[in-house]
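Let's do one together. I've listed all components of the complex below, 1065 residues spread over four lines.
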Amino acid sequence: MERLIFYILALTIILFSVMTVTSRNILRAAIYLLFVLLATAGIYFLLNYNFLAAVQLTVYSGGVVVLIVFAVLLTAKIDHKLEPVNKVKSALTALLAIIGLGAILWAVFGYNFTGNGMAEGAYDVKAIGSSLLSYGQYGYVLPFEVISILLLAAMVGAIMIAKRYKND
Amino acid sequence: MIEEVETKDAIKTQEYFVNMGPQHPSTHGVLRLMLELDGEIIKKVTPHIGYIHRSIEKMSEKDSYRQIVHLTDRMDYLSNHMNNEAVCLLVENALEVEVSDRVKVIRTIMSELTRLSSHQLWWGVMGMDLGALTTFLYAFRDREMINDIFEETCGARLTVNYNVPGGVMFDIHPNFQQRVKDFIKSFKTKLPEYDDLLSNNVIFRQRTEGVGILSKEDAISYGVTGPTGRASGFSNDTRKHKPYSAYDRVEFKEILMDKGDTFSRYKARILEMWESVSIIEQLIDNIPEGDIQEPSVKQVIKLPKGEFYQSVETARGELGVYVVSDGQKSPYRLKFRSPGFSNLFVLDHMVRGYKIADLVAMMSTIDLVIPDIDR
Amino acid sequence: MKEPLDLTPLTQSIHDYLLSYLSPFWTTTVEWVIIGVLLIAFVALSVMGLVYIERKVAAFFQLRLGPNRVGKWGLLQTLADFLKLLMKEHITSKNADKFLFNLAPFIIVIASFLAIGAIPFALGLQAMDINIGLFYITAASSIGVLGILIGGWAGNNKYSLIGALRSGAQVVSYEISAVLSLLTIVVLSGSLQLSTIIESQSDGWWIFKGHLPVFIAFIMFLIAGTAETNRGPFDLAEAESELTAGFHTEYSGIKFAMFFLAEYVNLFIIAAVGATVFLGGWMPFHIGNWAAFNEVMNYIPPVIWFFFKVGFVIGLIMWFKWTFPRLRIDQLLVLEWKYLLPINLVNLIVVAFIAMMGWYF
Amino acid sequence: MNAITSYFKDIFHAIKTLLTGMRVTGYYFSHARKEIITQQYPENRDTLKMFDRFRGIVTLTHDENNEHACTGCSACEIACPNGTIEIISDREEDPETGKKKKIIDKFIYHYSMCTLCNLCIISCPTDAIKMDPSFEYATFDRKDLTMILNKPGSKIRKDVK
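Okay, and this is what the predicted structure of the assembly comes out as:
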C-alpha cells in the first residue's frame, strides 16, 4: 500500500516538475510547482514526519506559492507567455542538468547510509521544540538564533521601506 | 488609451479602466461609470448617462398641463409628491390662483412624508452599499407605513399623482390623521435604531468620516443642492429661502454641516428626518377646512404667454421647473433642473484619489436616482 | 460513573470485520473509500443545511420569512438551488485561461476537504488523529486561498482580479492571527493533537478555565476566522456592492456551486476548530470534579455536544455578518496588523505566563 | 502614554458600538415571530383587502339592468396622457324625442398602456368610469390586456344627460 502511494507521489513530483520548467505560462508554472510541493508534503506524511509535512504545506504551498502567484497577478497579463528559449541554450541546460543529476546520484550511491539509532515513527512537536532550543548535542539553538536575527533584519528593512512613503 | 505612468518611486504601474455599470448592484439603476483606476485608487470617474432616457421634457411639449403632472412621478420616483407639486405650483402661479389653506397643509404633509420615505430608502440602500445588508429591510419596514398612508389617501404607493393644478385629487382619507400619528409615534422609536445600527457603528464611521470631502465653494460652483450641498455648509433649502405651500407657517431648522465629508452627508439626512417628523407633527393636528380644488382652474388649462419658473425642495435637492408658454394647452418648452443631475457630476471631483469602496459610499450619500438624472 | 459515549468500539468492530474477510491492503482501501464517501456525504448534507440555516437566520434578522415554498418550511430550497446550478450552462469568458479557470474551484474544494478530515466529530469519530492535528488543519486550509487567487485571475475579468488580490492580502495576513489565537490553547494544553486538547478539557472548557486571556483569544479567533472564510464584514473578495461578485464573477453553474460549497465548508471548519479548541469539542459540559453533575452531562452523546457548539459558533459568525457594514481593504489590514496581531502576541505571552505558573483551573 | 490610552479607548469604543448594533439585530432575531413584516401573498388572498381608493384597473360601472352611464363624450379619451382609451361611438335615433343621440359602440381600454393616473376618472362628467382595486391581471398574451369595457347589450341609463 505505502509503496503504491509512494510511486504515485513520486510520479506526480517528476511529472509536475517537468511541467513547471517547460510551461510557457508563468502562472501555470507556479500552479505546477504547487502540485510538486503538495506531493512532497505527501511523501513526508507517508514517512510519518507529520510536522515537517504540515510545515511544507504552510510555508511552501500556503506561503511561497501564494506569494509567487500574488506577484504574478500584480505584474503579468493573462495572455502573457514566456518566450521560447533558443536551442543552444536548452541543450546547454540539459547537459548541465544531466551532470548535476549524475553528481547527486554518484554521491547518494557512494555514501554508506547507516541508521542513527533513533526510533522509527512519529516525532512529536515537543521533541522538535526542545531540540530546536537545546545547546547540547543535536541542539539547534545557534542556527535558530541566527535565523531569528536574519528575520528581524528583514522585518526592520521592510518597515523602513514601507515608512519611506509616509515622509514624502 | 492605456498608458504607462511613472509613480514617484519610478515603479511602472499601469492604469486600467473598469466599467461600473450599466448593470451593477451599487449604481442604483442603469448608470454607467467609467473608472480609471490605478490599483484600487480611482484616478478619474466619467459618468455615462442616457440608458433610461424617456424624453419626459419632449413629451411634455405635447401633453396638457394636467398630464405633465403625472409624468413627473416617473422622474425622481422617490420624491413623487414634490415633483407633482412643482408643476402644480408653477401652473397656479402662472394662472395667479391661490389654493386654499387646506390644500397647502395637505401638500406640505405629503411632501414631508415623501421626504421621509425617500430618506428611509436611502438609509437602507446606504447600509447595503457598505455591506450591512440588514438595514435595507429595516428601512423598508418603516417605509411600508408611509406607503400605506399614500395608498389609502392617494390610491397608489409610488406613482401617486395626487396633486393636480389648483388643488389635490381627493380629500384626505378619514383615517389619514390617525395613520400619520401612528407612523410618527412608531418612527420616533425606530430612528434611534438607525443610529445604533449604522451611524455610531465604528466600521461605518471609519468608512465615512473624512472621506470624499466636498468644500462649500465646490458645492456652490457645481450647483450641488439638497442635503448633499447642505452637508458642505451651502445653505440652499428652498423651503427656507423661497417658502411655498405651508412651509412659511412651520418651524424647522435647515440642517447645515461644515465638514462636507461622507459622514456629514449621511448625518444631514438623518437629522433632516427628525426635522420632517417635527414638521408633520406641527401640521397634522390642525389641518384647516377648505376646498380641496380651486374652482377657478378649468379642465383645460392654458397658461398665459411668457416664461415661468418654480423650484421646490425634493429629497435630493432643488428641483426647478422652467416653462416657456406660448398660450397653448401645452408648453412650448419645458425644462426640469433636476437635483440628481447636478449632484452626480460632482462625483468625479470628489472621488479622485480614493478607493473603489469609497466611491460606493460617496455615490450612496449623493443619493442618486437615475430616472431623475436621465428623465 | 457514566462515561461519554465512545464510538471507538464501533469503528474498531468495522475494522475487525473487514479484516476477517479481506487482506490488510484491501481493508485499508475499503476503509478509505468508506471514510471518503462519508465525508463527502457529510459535507454535501451539512452545506445544504448551512445554506438553509444561513438564509433562514438572515431572514429572521431582517424580519422576513426566508425560504418557505419548496418543501415544508422551504427545507428543500437549497436542494432545488443545487439542482438548478447543476443544470446551468458552463460559461467561460473569452481569453480566459481555461485550465486554471477550471482548476481553481477544485483547489479550493480540495483544500477544505483536506482540512475537514482531521476534525473530531465525536469521541472515536475522527478520520485522522495525527499528532499535529491543529497545525495540519491550518496548513491545509491555507491552500484554499490559491483557488481564489487563480480563479480570480483566470476569469479574465478586472472585478475578479481585484477581488482575488484583496482576498490574497486578507487571507495571508489573517492566518497569522488565527494561528496565534489557537496557540494560546496549545500552550495551555501542551499539545497540537486535537484529541489531547479535548481530553484536557474534561474538567471544564478552556474558555472558562483560562480566564480573560482565553476569552480574548476566542474573540480574536472568531474575527480572524471570519476574515479567513471571506465572510461579512470581511467579504471584500466578493464585495457585492463594489465588485459585483468579486473573484467568482465569471463562474457559473456547478463551478460556481463549488466555490459556494467551499465557502460553507470553510465556515464549518472554522466553527468546528473554534468549538473544539475553546469550547471542548465533543466534551460535555463539565465543572471541575463535581462528579454528579458531570455524570448527568455525560448522558448527552458527544456528537450532539459537538454540533451544538459548532452551531453556536456559526450563529455568532452569522450574527456578525448580518449586522455589520463591510470594511475597506486598508482598514482591514490596519485592523490585522495594528490591533489583532499585537493583542494576540501580548495575549500569547500572558497565557504562556499563566500556563507556566499553573494559574488556570 | 496618551497614544496608548487612546489605543485602548478606541478598542473599547469600537467593541461597544459593535455590540450596540448586535443588540438591535439580536432583538429582532429573538422576536422574529412577532416582528416579521412580510406577507405571504397568494396564501393570504382571502384576507387581503386593498384600500378603497387603490387604483388597479379602470372599469365602466354597470347596474343590475345592464345599463351604464357613459354618454360617449370622450372626455376621458382626451384626458388620458397615453392614449389608453378609445371610444368608438355611434349615432342612434331616440325613440321618444326622435333626435339623433350619441351612444357608445365600443369602449376600448388598453390596459397595457395605462399608467393608472386617474385623470380619466376625474374628467368624466357622468361618473361612468371608476377605478377598481383588483390587481391580478397578468396574462401570457398581450392581446388579453386590450379590453372592451361596455358589456354586450348594455345601454346607457335613462337619467344620464
